[in-house]
Amino acid sequence: MINFTVEDHDGNRQSIEAPDDMGLSLMEVLKASEYPVLATCGGMALCATCHVEILEGKSELGVATDTELDQLEALPEYFPTSRLACQIRISDILEGSVVKLRGEDN
User: Fold this and answer.
1) Which of 90, 103, 81, 89 lies closest to 37 in space, CA to CA?
2) How far apart are CA 53 and CA 22, in angstroms?
């Protein structure tokens, strides 16, 4: 199991424990944890409604793909630590990370 922290739109933080052996994306775990992540494209990196900011642990995640960057750079609010949750797989690289929700809420 992987443990990381999610900060919601109101600044509240909650620890999340997610399985690392199912190939899930961060977006899928956030939705399953009932966070207001729209993910209207279903995880194809086409809508950026699963936009998150990695507050802690970004260096372990590597760099975003060009497709991901194209979506992020078109957002009105884009940070150097922005990522699309659909493009991050749950694995040990997320252990101890802090992720802030940035995408549109429902």
Assistant:
1) 103
2) 23
Q: Identify the CATH class of 2-101.
A: alpha beta
Q: Residues 93, 58: contact at Cβ < 8 Å?
A: no
Residue 36: Cβ-neighbour burial (10 angstroms; 0-12, 13-18, 19+): middle
Tell me the pLDDT tens digit for each residue of 27-40: 999 999 999 999 99
Distance CA 20, CA 39 (A): 21
Joined together, the tokens standing for residue 9 give 């739109």
Assign 52 to helix, strand or coil: strand
For the chain, give me the number of helices (H) and strands (E)? 3, 5
Q: Which of 85, 102, 84, 97 is nearest to 4 (CA)?
A: 97
CB atoms closer than 10 angstroms to residue 26:
27
pLDDT-derived band of residue 106, with 50, 70 and 90 as boundaries?
very low
Helix H or strand E segment including 73: helix 66-73
